[in-house]
Specification:
heterodimer; A: 536 residues; Rossmann fold; 7-stranded mixed sheet; 21 helices; 20 strands; 37% helix; 20% strand; B: 778 residues; alpha/beta; 29 helices; 19 strands
Chain lengths: 536, 778
Amino acid sequence: MSKKPTAPRPGFVLEVDRQTPPILFHHGEGFRMEKLPIGRTRVIYAPEPLRGLEDPDSAIVDALKNPIEDDPLPSLLKPGMKLTIAFDDVSLPLPPMQRPDVRQRIIEAVLDMAAEAGVDDVHLIAALALHRRMTEAELRHALGDRIYESFAPDGQLYNHDAEDPDGMVILGETKHGESVQMNKRAAESDLVIYVNINIVSMDGGWKSTATGLSGYKGVSAHHNVHTMEQSKSFMDQKKSELHKSNWRQGEVIKEHGPRIFQIETTINTNTFGETGPMSVLQKREWEWSMKDRASFTAMNTGLKAMSSANRRKVFHSWKAPYDITSVQAGEVEAVHKKTTEMVYKQHLVPVEGQTDVMTMGLPYLTPYNVNSIMNPILVMVQGLGYFFNLYKGKPLVREGGVLIMSHPTPWEFHPVHHPSYIDFFEQVLADTTNPAEIEKKYEKQFAEDEWYRHLYRTSYAYHGVHPFYMWYWGSHAMKHLGQVIIVGGDPKAVRRLGFKPATTLQDALEMAEDVVGPQPTITHYHNPPILMADVT
Amino acid sequence: MIASSLAGKRIAITGATGFLGTALVERLMRSVPECHIVLLIRPGKRSTVTQRARREIFRNDAFDRLVETHGKEGFFAMVDERVTIIEGDVGTDGLNLDDEGREVLASCDVVIHSAATVSFDAALSTAVEVNLLGPTRVVETLQDLGASPHMIAVSTCYVAGNQRGTANEELLTDSPFHIDVDWRSEVKAARRLRSDFDAESRSTDRLAEFGKRAQYEIGAAGTPLLAAKTETLRQRWVSEQLVEAGRARAASLGWPDAYAYTKALGERALAESKGNIDVSIVRPSIIESAWAEPNPGWIKGFRMAEPIIISYARGLLKEFPGVPEGIVDVIPVDMVVAALVGVASQGHAGDGSIDVTQVASGTRNPLHYRDLVKMVGGWFQEHPLYDEKGQPISAPEWSFPGRGAVERQLNRVHKQLDTADKVMKRLPLRGKQARLNAHIESQKEVVETAIGYVKIYGAYAECEALYGVENLIEMHESFTKDEQTTFCCDPGVVDWETYVTKIHLPTVVDHARAKTTSRRTDPDARTKRLRKRVLAPERQLAAFDLENTLISSNVVFSYSWLATRNLGTADRVKFAANLLREGPSLLALDNRDRTDFLRHFYRRYEGASVEELDRLGSELLADHILTKAFPAALRRVRAHRQLGHRTLLITGALDVVVKPLKPLFDDIICAEMTQRDGRYTGELTHVPPTGEVRARELQDYAATHDLDLSEAVAYADSSSDLPLLDAVGFPVAVNPETRLTSMALKRGWLIEYWAKSEGRSDRTLPLGPLPSLRRSRK
């Protein structure tokens, strides 16, 4: 029955003509099918998922035993040593992967080797920087119940706490004067093993340790408006100021910090599965079979009948059947080079020339609302922070162009996860949407707020400063774009973001013409599954 | 001739702070430059007579013309030179004068007595003391002083009562329809009635009734506030009985209301007690805004017709009784003033008689009710009032039904609203829903006001007497040509169309501050203004209630969360069922007395492990408190802190429950349980801070930290928090329930509607999450 082609097809740019069926737009916890203008519209499709490793577990062991530009892991493990295993938090991958999570596979392999070497002082730390703490259920999902139950009760498995006054150290300063801060336990360890999942090209490398195990002082060195505006884009390592800053901090870690053994993994874009109810979402519309159409219609009808809370529940319970495409371990920079190659191989789609108007359908998930609510600020960061920046070379949309995104953008916030977001939205954005002004006027106040600090440390809240970073994330796009329009969003929330609301895509395209002129060129970014435009 | 005949004369005036009195003072100062004016004024509760005179008389816009001519300083210099103010009260025998006051009064050549209780729904006893006995007290004091000035008493045309046909300028005793009533026994009866009603109001049954009513109105607000409310209700009841009694007595004798009745008897008492003093009586009809002097349309205060006109234009008064061909006897205030000055300048014949001058328009220049209604209706069609949304209001069309029909209709509506109000008050509503009740309540008040107007003024609108004005016209004709302009008192010159549409209505609308443009005013302007005051840097303390103010939860919910946290599914079902069964009785206890409720409820914690509860505390924060919290409330606490205000949480909730909120506040005052061997006993260490205890705790706290409560802000949600809210200078009602909503609206408090975060996961029952799912892989 399987009509699967022998090799995954590369990404593809479709010119919309009379034959083109309506195109799928993600729209939060739902979808829209949009007919795009003929003759001047392109649709960019992601490459098909790469083939996964046949036997990931032996690939892991192999990577640990034969690392790149480093000694084999078993040779680094000694009895009596202090070992810290840090791992990426709940923000990766997106959506979360089916059990067993790759972190569990790797850490189980590492722990086996450590046990064999007689290492007993092992701490496992969720390297969440200023993200919210992971819940028990989330830790169990990422690491497996066996690891959780062996380490958590004795306090050897825990969340990084960047605001613990006794738990952080300053390792030094880069030549640019950037502070390098690190979790004290990690800094004092004989070896830090970092377990990463690379989903987009800005993940991993020195960012894992320099940011993941850092605190406000270290992170604010590059999470600021200046750096973000100079990162064009932060997904393009050569042109990312963010990347450079993290690498400078890496230099300091190399010199003054613990020895780092980096393990990076890449996964393919098999987000919705090749079979099953969601599989239609990663197919190209004109290839939808009758069955695909029927299941899509059924899904859409079902979703519309649900309450928004239930819809959210359905989407957030989706676990992706990703395959692991590569595992590499060893020296940070050498490892990351290989990882980046793999990521580019999966994501890059060559595109010729920029466009006047860029359209995108935003899905229900960002790194910051796993098991949570995608509030309006996260809608902004999804579109202007992530999707806009998924380019290499130059932005897909020309300077002064228009970005049209589709998302319901409800005025809703998760009270436990995003308390400072609520205040940022109600208080800061009501005053100004200018990133530089926001940074100057409000950042310190939120970053040092006792209450947010309390909630970050004891509850499950993002750090008080986090919404600011989200806003800075979008600053490059805000500067570049002539206008941002959200289709189908709550008009009040959309206006608060400083964007224009539109009821239909048709309306939005007409509004865009006021900015870029009549008959503009349009490019639709068919994401997810994730793709990255290589614009020439 | 007028100015010269009054030159050098000393003219005493009572009631100068009133509408007519102020106009009279102004005219004398402007048009009779050489007279001296003596004002007899009652001291205010918190102000001296000089302050009162300045504020209530000389700052009035009536004096704008004089200020314009003489400059502000020049004008006040003139006041100092030409006006003497003495302290006195016509409601007391001997007028309560001091020696200096007696001397000044004794030196006067003319006394114009215009002090009266003009309120048409005055309590009988008050009307009797002021209107009936006032003139007599003045002449008796003058006799006592051995003075014999010309006394001019201001009365009213309506002393003639509800008769049809002509009422002449003659003493009532000379009228053929005269009813012989002994005014002295009327005074005695009124006083007796007052003490009877007072005695009845103190009977056990009545007091119980007032107590119940107070509880109904303000809820479980604690003993001191309930006591104060009960006493207010008692006094109000006595006064209401006296108003009703006055209306009944007046009607029984053929007068439209207690005002006309007491004025009529006042005239008679004056005639009997005047002795050798020359007395003139001036009887105006319904005094309305000025025709020409000091300015066309000048008016002071909200007078008889204005509330009716505005209610009509707002579409609230759908019908008003009246005889279409009947005459509305309105007289511009400047004509009454001119008549008074005229009578004063003419002097008295000195023959012991009492001369009567009526100042009315009905016979000379009648204004028919139908025409008036048409003019008013037409004017508002062209100049509609607007509602808050900027929509023009179309004024209703009156069909002149009888008074009974209108009253019946209004009473029916009132009854419906009253039932709705009672039902709403019983429902546990809060926030914006509670506002609906406040709306019903205000609708009810509107109807009540309308019923009041119909009752009080309906009689006047249906009055078909014609008031003769021969004396008035004769006097007017005796004036020189110039004086006929300056002191015009001939109602014949009034063009009603001009008067109603060009002069009176614009003034009335202006005075009522009614909305006359479609420009939408910011509906939140008031809230914003109040919020700014609450968040002013000079505030010192912000006290917060917890339940329904910061979080949408209560002690039962948090208990239930804690208690079920470690239970399995079956036990949880049992627990929930038990709690639900107990719900109604717990709620009833809470409504009666919060302290008893808390004591009773906290017994449940007996035996709970201190350590365990402490551990669950932070979990409670994430799972229960934050999910139920109002983000805007938490933001407000922090806003106060940022402004340097001290922040205080003051709640009857338990310390274990509120502990996670500690970083938000400088201090927390809450209930605490005693412990034994690491377990809670279920007993409280002290009286929990609820009701008046909370106010007391707040006072103590403020004293300890040297904070000024008049600079403090308090946030609370229910009428049981009234003592706390009353204790501070800036009370804020948060998502208030029905009673507190209407109270806050009336008292002009800031009301905040704070909502839980949208998109939170809402559990129907406040149960803790299940113990973690130990799903083993394998």
